[in-house]
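FYI - complex with beta-L-arabinofuranose, inputs then prediction.
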Amino acid sequence: MRQFLPLLFLPLTLHAQNPIIHNQFCADPTARVFNGKVYLYPSHDINPPKPLPEGVREDWFCMEDYHVFSSENLTDWKDHGVIINQKDVPWGNPGAYSMWAPDCVERNGKYYFYFPDAPKDGHGFTIGVAIADKPEGPFTPVKTNIQGVGGIDPCVLLASDGNAYLFWGPGRCAKLKDNMIEIEDDTPVETIKFGEREFQMSGVNCLKDLPSRQAEGPFAFEYNGNFYLTYPYVRENTEVLGYAMSKHPMGPYEYKGLIMKEHANGCWTNHHSIVNFKGQWYLFYHQNDYSPNDDKRRSVRIEKLYFNPDGTIKEVTPTLRGVGIVDALSKIEVDRYSSASSDVKIEFLDEEDKFQGWSARLEKKGSYLTFNDVDFSKFENGYVTANVKADKNTSFIIRDKNAKGKIIAQFKVVCITEGQFKRDYSGQWLTVTAPVNYLPKNITDLYISTEEGGLNIDNIQFKNSEKYFSKPSSTFLQPDNDGFIKRWHILEPINMDLFTNAIFTDSYLDSVFCNSNYTKLFATQPSDNQKVKYNNQNLVWHKTDSERFNVKLFRFSEMYSKKYYGVLYSAVTVINCDEDIENVRLAVGSNSASCWWLNDEKILLMQGDRRMVKDDCVSKSVTLKKGRNVLRGAVINGPGMSDFCVRFIDKNLNPVRNIRIE
Ligand code: FUB
């Protein structure tokens, strides 16, 4: 995960598992579905400004504005920027930093945003409304707060009886007038103590006689003829999410149990909303992921939520993975795993800047993690990269589905090499790449495990390969406009155990290219898929057309999951001529050293450690004879990206194109 710089008022897209918003703290998430999208109205925790404004506590909630976010898939979230600042509220104290948990509902085409704030004329909270034509605003605050309502955490239930009900604070409820900005009866019925002060309260207390110690954050909804009043309260030391059910919006409610237990990390508050999106129910809640030592700076999470047949709610277990389908081509933050072996830990990438996110530490042999719901439908063919850190040479495997699933990719993490080229990258972040051997079908779960441990993984990402090769057609192929020959039989690379290119002298190259064992490989014209053996290595010839003028041997290896460093490549092509073409020269570029034969005569040797440059070397003058001419080449490379480009040029240096490749 990486930090996104705050761009006020510019929509910003965030890709998310839990927590879902990465560019700021936010809490008290109310999710609503408008126009086929989920809109998220959280409160916005910030670190208290310095110096501390009067009345603001360093160790308390500090909120000066609201952002709104939207998503079409619960994975990609767009930040629409600030919709209201404390300075915009006509009745509010512009320096109170008290913009706590809000809600937003749509009625008759208007969007009503309900929010608590400290009034200008005193302490404590009351609730106000701002109105917009669109879910993302702009919102215009109503001049006065809602009369008769003292407290925090508004939630509006649009019930099937046609009425709108305002819930707030410790489970109070009052019917709203049709104008949505006043309650029908604001006559005080109760005196509530809030710190030192007393408030005259209207409405009814729906949680009277129910488990509700320090209850707040009510969220009410209706489903299948039942009304649900869900709310955080303190069961022992910190908040749980509990719920009650009723047949009527204003109760009486019957307590039913827990939706979520206390946070395991001690975060004191939880605050939530429950929404059905595309047929699935979701619980939005918060925890202090980005601020483990301060539970007043929180972050929003989502989990799926399920009902029992009798309408009661199944308890939800918090996860790091959260919800949503993750595109295999996006960065898959595997530190947000679905499950893991007990030794797996998450570690902040940067303790000083926690918004950078985490990595997963796979400590020992057999450590594993799973990451569910990865969508491979846009992945065609290619490779996978991983951002990793290791304290020793190690490896890991990505499998399809589970521990017994097919191997998708196998990674070696070499961070320490010995000998002449000693390097030590232990403890540093490295990007490692592996070819994809098996392509999962559409949406699947990933299982990542290590045999050695000692490994941190930040993220993995699947990437489609650019197209470097295609299947040759059965017709003859002309060289391209510049005369480059793009159809070849290429032999899978011969492993040479080479770690340097410094040894490519004439005599070394002759010992490789001209030894009889090697030349035997070319005794007969190769055919597609023909198997051969060289020094106990089993190899296959592949007939292929290069998509580019230069034949990318490195990618050829990748395509067949073969070694690409320290290897010897062999290529053969057959050129047909209608008549003798005299006085032409073979012009070659290769990375690295190479040797070229025309009709079994060695016509060019390119020694040394070289880059592929068009026409880097040319042969002596040769004749392409009428009929078939066999051109073959060998390219050898240590650590480097092997490729070559080959064409014939005439005495005027023009490319020879009146030839056909079989
Ligand atoms: O975010 C401030 C307060 O913390 C909310 O209003 C409460 O529900 C609790 O989450």
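The first strand starts at residue 12 and ends at 15. Confidence is low (pLDDT under 50) at residues 1-11.
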